[in-house]
């Protein structure tokens, strides 16, 4: 079972999402919270696999709540993973939420099936970004002068194949798609991904996407 915590300041949203997810045989809603501070407290107590985190909440916003929960993770732990939910695809927090450690970003008006799929994907260790959010993220990096990007010295630790896998991750490919493109087993891709995250000291694939664009390893439009 995938344990889910829902954090949103609107009761109807919490109830609606809760009913939708509770109807799935592999999902268990363990609790909810009406603000970021309560979300942090509840997550520490209930140990969910995934937190659905609203961006704009009172007391503590979703960005700071994400920072605190990711910072709380014991060494080697991947829980909880944060799936950011927002009404606005142009929210100023998109980039910072990913930098804070969020594993996914989805709009609240997405179809119900997309939300269920997103929870499963994020729980499984994949990054998930709404297409409009991905385009915005890439556009932000594309607008930055190349000279302002940090030098990719950390990338020197990667093998050529690991670098190739990182480029494909940054382009939004799943493990299965990467395996098909490189003509290798999916388990081999998973091994490469694990080594990439370990060598670059990254929490998950979402951070790998950010780093790939920040360092110029992948350029917008490629």
Automatic annotation (TrEMBL):
InterPro entries: CheY-like_superfamily (IPR011006), NreC/VraR/RcsB-like_REC (IPR058245), Sig_transdc_resp-reg_C-effctor (IPR016032), Sig_transdc_resp-reg_receiver (IPR001789), Tscrpt_reg_LuxR_C (IPR000792), WalR-like (IPR039420). The keyword Cell inner membrane does not apply. The keyword Amino-acid biosynthesis does not apply. CDD domains: LuxR_C_like, REC_NarL-like. Coiled coil: none annotated. The modification 4-aspartylphosphate is found at residue 54. Residues 151-216 form the HTH luxR-type domain. Residues 3-123 form the Response regulatory domain. Keywords: DNA-binding, Phosphoprotein, Transcription, Transcription regulation. SUPFAM superfamilies: C-terminal effector domain of the bipartite response regulators, CheY-like. This is Response regulator.
